[in-house]
Amino acid sequence: MVADTSLYDVLEVKPDATKEQITAAIKKKSLEHHPDRGGSHEMMQKVNAAKEILTDPQKRHTYDRYGLKGIRSDMAEIFDLFDLITGGRSRGERSTPPKGSDIKQALKVSLEELYLGTTKTVTVNRKIICADCHGVGSQDGTTHECTNCEGTGIETIIHRMGPFIQQMQSKCSSCDGDGRTIDWRNRCKKCNGQKLFQETKKLDVHITHGSQDRETIKLSGQGNQIPNGESGNVYIILDQQPHAIFNRNGDNLIMKLEINLTESLCGFQRLINLLDGHTILIKHPAGKPIIPNTYRCLKGYGMPNRHTHSHGDLIIHFDVKFPEENFITTDSQRQVSLFFTSE
């Protein structure tokens, strides 16, 4: 089934006509409508438009699949010929095939999943072409030209404002801009003549290691479908969830490490579990007090960067906890005082 039959109708041939049949029809119609023989200049232009497209195998293939909108040409005059057939709709419109709408969906991911990379499954609700009627909308594949817009898909609305008359064009309300209608008794039972129906689809999303928060992953052709057009895309937006230990800043990881006053003054050792499951030992020597709210940088222990094939840094923020009030006796206070004042 072809997307548009208007050019075949001009020549009064079927869409499956052979090249020889089309050539014969063009010769016949040219003689019939030639202005020198008393024919119509407008009809002759339509015949020339049909000749331009249907005698070129590549253009005919594109026309059969996408209709007049799908025809690409560097010849400006070809659009004038299209205007005769489509009522001016081709001018200013896209020459590329129509496309279904895209779907955007957020996907929650953990910091570990962004670090290591993973594959997750998402469920999307999308519109797909009805398999029973193949996107035509009728049981037997037949449709009728819309009587409201005469097949143009556009209706003209007239507004009267005193002595002035304003004309506005909008999508036809009877055929929803399609230009064709379906007898209600002949509607496809599966889609009820809508040509599409809702489908729930599961898709695998491959997340590369080192992916960023709010990064978008494109799944081409998995979006909403439309008859005689291309499918839209699905865009998955990664939504990084808060982590119990680490905060992310670009490729760097920041963590707060709580230590007590004794550890600050006398040193400590602490094991830290990294996002990839490895454990590192943090050592701080005695005699080098850690000042509250200071930082230590461990090079190369942050997030991976798939572009530079390197890692960011792990930045440790030290949170020194001081004792509560009255934590020490009077005698102990003297000993501590002597310790800090002695040389």
From TrEMBL:
<feature type="domain" description="CR-type">
    <location>
        <begin position="117"/>
        <end position="200"/>
    </location>
</feature>
<dbReference type="GO" id="GO:0006457">
    <property type="term" value="P:protein folding"/>
</dbReference>
<keyword id="KW-0479">Metal-binding</keyword>
<dbReference type="InterPro" id="IPR036410">
    <property type="entry name" value="HSP_DnaJ_Cys-rich_dom_sf"/>
</dbReference>
<keyword id="KW-0677">Repeat</keyword>
<dbReference type="Pfam" id="PF01556">
    <property type="entry name" value="DnaJ_C"/>
</dbReference>
<dbReference type="InterPro" id="IPR002939">
    <property type="entry name" value="DnaJ_C"/>
</dbReference>
<dbReference type="Pfam" id="PF00226">
    <property type="entry name" value="DnaJ"/>
</dbReference>
<dbReference type="InterPro" id="IPR044713">
    <property type="entry name" value="DNJA1/2-like"/>
</dbReference>
<keyword id="KW-0863">Zinc-finger</keyword>
<dbReference type="GO" id="GO:0051082">
    <property type="term" value="F:unfolded protein binding"/>
</dbReference>
<dbReference type="InterPro" id="IPR008971">
    <property type="entry name" value="HSP40/DnaJ_pept-bd"/>
</dbReference>
<dbReference type="InterPro" id="IPR036869">
    <property type="entry name" value="J_dom_sf"/>
</dbReference>
<dbReference type="InterPro" id="IPR001305">
    <property type="entry name" value="HSP_DnaJ_Cys-rich_dom"/>
</dbReference>
<dbReference type="Pfam" id="PF00684">
    <property type="entry name" value="DnaJ_CXXCXGXG"/>
</dbReference>
<dbReference type="GO" id="GO:0008270">
    <property type="term" value="F:zinc ion binding"/>
</dbReference>
<keyword id="KW-0862">Zinc</keyword>
<feature type="zinc finger region" description="CR-type">
    <location>
        <begin position="117"/>
        <end position="200"/>
    </location>
</feature>
<feature type="domain" description="J">
    <location>
        <begin position="6"/>
        <end position="67"/>
    </location>
</feature>
<dbReference type="InterPro" id="IPR001623">
    <property type="entry name" value="DnaJ_domain"/>
</dbReference>
<protein>
    <submittedName>
        <fullName>Uncharacterized protein</fullName>
    </submittedName>
</protein>
<dbReference type="GO" id="GO:0030544">
    <property type="term" value="F:Hsp70 protein binding"/>
</dbReference>
